[in-house]
Amino acid sequence: MKNNTLIVISVIGVVAFAVLFYFGGGDKSSVSNSAIDNVNTVVDPHDHSTTVNTSSGLLNNLVDKPAPNFSFSDRDGKVYSQDTLRGKNTILFFNEGLMCYPACWNQIVAFSKDDRFKNDDIVTLSVVVDSKESWQQAIDKMPELAQATVVFDNGASVSKAFGALSLSSSMHPGSLPGHTYAVIDKEGIVRYVFDDPNMGIRNDQLMEEIAKFN
To answer: Does the N terminus or the C terminus of the chain have fewer Cβ atoms within 10 A?
Structure first.
């Protein structure tokens, strides 16, 4: 009987120790798991429902003001800037370039195939942050891109000046533009801007806007 009592007491002691150990360490476990959850929480850049630090303020504030200074060249080395484009309506299409297949590529090709953009009054420049050398990969995959005027924004400096790096369409906020348009008139004044998270083909929309100030 005495031995049985000792056994029962021993079992109770072991159980009590286990309970205290489990619940006593619960707080530490909870904090640790919480920290892990925070570290592993990643914002999917392709999910526009997530909270991303986007701002259209800089882009919208450009309207009716002289365009920020810009200068870039195409694959052949031809330079485009405010000075060389004076006297022409200019569309700048800031886009994600190589990483934006097929949406951005489709818009770039749509510009090159649309006769309304093939005249002395309008110049359409598709601005990418990729290098000239790497852009050949896109042409190899979609040869029609070779007919479009693509210019290279080294260091994304022009994209940043136009506020195109942290908009709703940006899938890599802060480093790459998404799908953004800026229309500059013949005097170098920004007349229209549009950021398009839906990444559609906006030829008709852009022509309608240009018609308003011509």
So the answer is: N
> Per mean pLDDT, which range of 41-45, 113-117, 164-168, 186-190 is the poorest?
41-45
Which parts of the chain are beta strand (E)?
71-73, 79-81, 89-95, 122-128, 150-152, 179-184, 190-195
Spatial separation of the C-alpha atoms in residues 133 and 22, rounded to whole Å: 60
User: Parallel, antiparallel, or unpaired: how do β-strands 179-184 and 89-95 relate?
Assistant: antiparallel
Amino acid identity of 19?
Answer: V
Separation of alpha carbons 124 and 210, rounded Å:
12
What digits encode the pLDDT tens for the residues 154-186? Answer: 999 999 999 999 999 999 999 999 999 999 999
Residue 136: exposure state from Cβ atoms within 10 A (0-12, 13-18, ≥19): middle
**CA–CA distance, 214 with 206 (Å, rounded to integer):** 13
CA angle in degrees (0–180, nearest 5) for 192-198-202: 45
Where are the alpha helices (H) located in 41-194, listed in sequence order? 57-60, 82-85, 103-113, 132-141, 157-161
Closest CA relative to residue 120, chosen from 87, 84, 73: 87
Residue 10 pLDDT more than 60? Answer: no
The pLDDT assigned to 56 comes to 83
- Cβ-proximal residues to 176 (8 Å cutoff; 6+ apart), any chain: 96, 97, 99, 129, 156, 159, 165, 170
β-strand pairing of 89-95 with 79-81: unpaired
